[in-house]
Structure formats: C-alpha cells, structure tokens
Amino acid sequence: MDKNTWIGFLLIAAIIVGFTMLNRPSKAELAERQRVQDSISLARMAEAEAQRISDSLQLVAGAPAETAEIAEEQAEIQQERMQAAYGTFAEAAQGEEQLVTLKNEKIRLTLSTRGGAIKRAELLEYHASGDSINPLCLFRGDESAFGFTLITGNNRILQTGNLFFTPVETNDPRKAILRLKTAAEDAWLDFVYELADDYMVHLALEPHNMQTELAQNITSLELQWRQLIPQQEQGRKFEERYAQLQYMLVGGEMEKLSESKNDAAKESARVKWIGYKDQFFSTVLIADDAFTSSEFASVPQGKHTGYIKEYTTHTSVPFDLNGKNITGFRFYLGPNHYHTLKAYDDGVAKEDRLRLNKLVPLGWKIVSWINVILVIPMFDLFSSWGLHIGIVILLMTIVIKLIILPFVFVSYKSSAKMRALRPQIDAINEKYPADKMQERQQATMQLYQQAGVNPMSGCLPMLFQFPVLMAMFWFLPTAIELRGKSLLWAPDLSTYDAVFHWSTNIPLLGDHLSLFCLLMTICNIGYTYITMQSQATDPNMKFMKYMMYAMPLMFLFIFNDYAAGLSYYYLVSLFITILQTMIFRWTLDDEKMLKEMEENKKKKAGKPKSGFMARLEAMQREQQRLARENARAQQRR
C-alpha cells in the first residue's frame, strides 16, 4: 500500500477513536447506571430468595407434627426464617389476598391486598371487540405487576409485590387505604388510592414512623412496572401498529419505542409520565414529581397468545422517609380520546402541561396541524347534531371537496388547455427530433407562454390536497368515536369490513376481503379511466397508461386491512371527484378554449416576455451555449 492509503487508514482510525471518546458516558453516568443495575439485580435475587424461603415455610407448616414439642419447634423455626427473610415485615409476608373495589361512572378498579396494586381495571363505557355485554378490561390478574423495592433497616431487600397489605376502613367510597404493617405497632407504609370523577386515580405513598424500619439513607425507591396488552380489536395488524410504549420527558419532549419489533431504551433525563398504549386505550403512569434513571422495554407478542405487547419499566422515584414530601402518582386508565386527554391541560401553565393528547397519533407536524384546526372541529360539529356517523363522514367529505374545489377547477382547466394544444405540441416534436431536446423544450415553453398556459398549475391542487388527504388518513383509523359504530354491512367502522373470509393467508391480501375497500378500488379504476380519456397523452407511452390502472388495483391490497371508515371516506371522495370531473367536462369547451388561446397569442405578440419566461429562456440559451462549447472542446481533443 502507498503512503496515501496508510494516511487514509490512520485518519479513519483517529475519527473512530475520537468519536468513541466524545460519546463515552461520564463517570457520574456510569456510576448511576451501575447503581440501577445493582439495585435491580439485588431486587431480583432477594425476590427469588424470599420465594424460596416462603415455599420452604409452607412445607414446614404443612408437615404433620407428631408431638406438641415438635409443633412448637416447627413454629419457632418458621418464625426465625420469616424474620431472617423479611425482617420487620415478617408479619406481612404471609396472609390471604383480599380485594377492594373503587368505582365511578367510567371505570371500576379492583385493588389487591397482595402487593397493594391495581389487579383489574375495567372501562364501563366500552366493550372488547365481539363482546357487547362485559366492560372492556385493560388488564386483569397477572397481566399487570406494579411494585417497589424496599430496603429494611437491617438491609433486607424486599418487593412490595410479595407482601400483604391490610385494608383500612374509609368513609369515602372512592378512597382506599392499603397499609403495609411492620413489627412496630406505630410504624407502617400506606398506599392511598383516590379515584376522581373521570379516568384518573391518584396513588400516594405515605410512610408513618418508618425511619427505623427502612434504611435511613433511602432517598428514592426503585419502581418496577410490567403489563401485558390484551388484544381488544378485530384488526390485530392495526392494533399492533398503534400499540406503543411512549413517555414524556420533563419539559415536554416525547419519546417512544418501536411498535413493530423488540425495543429497549435507557433514559437518564427526568421523565414526567410513561404510557402503555394500545390502539384505542392506554394505561399511563404520571409522576407528581418525576421518574429518574429509567429503563424501558417493549416486546411484541405472538399472534395466537391473545396479547399484543408486553411493556416493562424499571425506574426510580424520590421518597421522603419522614413523610413530609409525599411520593405521589396518577394513573390514567382510559380511552385515547383527543378531547378527554387534552382536557387535563386546561388551565394549566405551559411548563406543567401533561400533553397526554400526544397519545393520539395525528400524523406529521403539518398533517397534525390540519387535524387539530380543521378535521377534529368539523367532526365534532357534525357529530354534535346527532347525525349518524356515516352522514358525518359524508358531510366532512363534501366540505373538504368544496374547500379545494377552486384549485381542482384550475387544475382541470390547465389539463384541458394542454389537451387542446396537443396538435401544436406534436408539430413541435416533429420539427425538433429527440437529439434537439433543448430546442424542443424551448419551443414548447414558448407555446405555453403565448397561449397563457402554466403547466405547473395542474400540480398546485395536489400540493394542497395531499396534506388534507393524509390528515384524514391518520384521523379516521385512530378516532375512537368510530369504534363500534356500524354503517350498512360494516358492524365496526374502526376496523375492516370483511364480507368474504377464507382459511388460507394470501400474500398481501390476507384472509379476507373488505367490501368498502373493494368498492373504493372499483371507483378508483373508473376515475382513472375518465381521467385518461380527458387528458392529452402520448400514444407511444402505453406502459405509463397501464401503470395508471395498476395503481388503483394496488390500493385494494394496501387498504384491505384498514378501517372501514377510511375506505368509506375515500369511496365517497372519489365518487364526488368523478361528478366534479363530469361537470367540468360539460362546462368547458375545448374549441372555445383553443380560440381564446389563439387570441391570447395575438395579443401577446410583440410584447415583452414575463420575468419568469425570460429567465427560463436565458437559462436554456446558456445551456445551449455550454453544450456547444463542450462539443467543440471534445472535437479539438
């Protein structure tokens, strides 16, 4: 290898080493990561050890005692082992599970005294797909695990999920106190749940005289939270697409894990809330203060498991052992409804807003902006009139079409003018062969300029329509208002309206055929035919003509799994577009437009060209000059 090659390798090596050094975490970050890993490892080891001791204690307790002395000896051994394993919480290590219910008009929560956590969460106003009787259940039993790591005064590491709490009587039907008792009569830790009038429930950790029962150097608690997301909708493909672990940093920045594959993240910044999101429902844990040193993981589940994702979180929360600063959380257990989530920021200072409405996917920034200022208010207005959901979507489509009608008319008129000029363009193509492309383009542009035709005017309506179309594309599949609403043969507009099923899975199409999607495809092919008939096309470009018909057919495979409400919207939109095209064709006369353009040519004859056309022709002349100079230079060589 020569000297330059060696220098190149050395520079690459220097760049790699420098990049590694610059991105290396600081000592403080490494120490914090190690602390989190050590605490998690210790917690898991302690949990396994506690479970082993508990199993052995059950064996000892279950063994028959031959004499009273042996029975007493077994009891002493059991007590010693309990004390060794759980310390001051030995009494709470065993017990019987009791259930406590909190309920309002929207949700019903079942709390378990084992672990002091929510065991079951039901939304009373919603049902799972195919179940019109039972309330929708976000999670039940072992599908969710929520708890904290406690370090006792004698350095025992325990998990609250393995301990039994004692329910305390309250006079409030929406308030529950689960008490974790210790060996000291006047020392305990309360988990206080208070259910609001909506989908929020507040949890406060209130210690009482725990200074000697827990390690005195405690300033934070390790929190572990795991949840399986059951399949709630018919369309599993879309539910998987929208199910996602999201979280918001203090300050408002949103982060999320992949929705399609195993993903994990470590977050050193302070986190305000963590959302376990499904397509239409979410469980969100909101800190009164913030979470720190957080680790997140998302694991997609198998198709036949009945679950969509498994989410896990390991994080830390500040904890005041003296109880002066209460550690508090809020759980949001409810629908991904834009207005419901946004209402939690009403009257709240900008820096303190939760921005839970970000759980509702509304598309890219400009698309989201159109949804917020146009689509959602329009949907709310028509829905408030008590109309059927199909009529609401129809009215929205008509309004959108009326808004963009002037732009569509300009586009069609531009296409009609170019079609009328087709014989003159063909004459230019014959005059200037393909090897004189610049002269051909210059003559064509001159013809357009004289006739008053702007080729770009046909593209402007598409630039305006595309964001609106994408706004509806994002809004309709995620609008919970469509969930469970029927239209004609479709029982649920939030998922596909399959009218034909088969056992085998056809690539790209799946195991069903959606009727609204099929009708949309047929209507799209009809619109393509009408468009091709009204446009000036080159007869030599037959392949492009076939491609124009192939695109609508591809939509059949793309939208077959999409929400029926979206296919219905596109069907209605295409039908209105066809009517518009027919009306434009009846009202615009090609011969009349050609005469107008000829008159326009005469009026512009001898007049100076517009600034744009002058600059364009100047650029073309400069290109021609450079091409001639290059040709002469090559001949001299």
Question: Main traits of this protein?
Answer:
single chain; 637 residues; alpha+beta; Beta-galactosidase, Chain A, domain 5; 3 domains; 14-stranded antiparallel beta sheet; four-stranded antiparallel beta sheet; 15 helices; 20 strands; 23% strand; elongated
Task: Describe this structure as you would to a colleague.
There is one protein chain. With 637 residues, this protein is of the alpha+beta class. It folds into three domains: 266 residues, Beta-galactosidase, Chain A, domain 5, CATH 2.70.98; 227 residues, no CATH class; 30 residues. It contains 15 helices and 20 strands. The strands form three sheets. Strands 5, 6, 7, 8, 9, 10, 11, 12, 13, 14, 15, 16, 17 and 18 form a 14-stranded antiparallel beta sheet that branches. Strands 1-2-3-4 form a four-stranded antiparallel beta sheet, with no helix packed on it. It has a two-stranded antiparallel ribbon with strand order 19-20. Helix 6 packs across helix 7 and helix 9 runs antiparallel to helix 15. It is elongated. The two termini are 34 Å apart. The model has no long low-confidence stretch (mean pLDDT 82).
Produce a short descriptive summary:
The chain is α+β, with helices and mostly antiparallel strands. The protein has helices spanning 3-22, 27-62, 68-86, 236-242, 338-342, 365-384, 389-420, 422-431, 437-451, 460-478, 515-534, 542-559, 564-587, 590-604, 611-636, and strands spanning 99-103, 107-112, 118-123, 136-140, 144-151, 157-159, 166-168, 175-181, 188-195, 200-208, 220-230, 244-249, 254-256, 263-267, 271-277, 281-300, 307-318, 327-335, 498-506, 510-514.
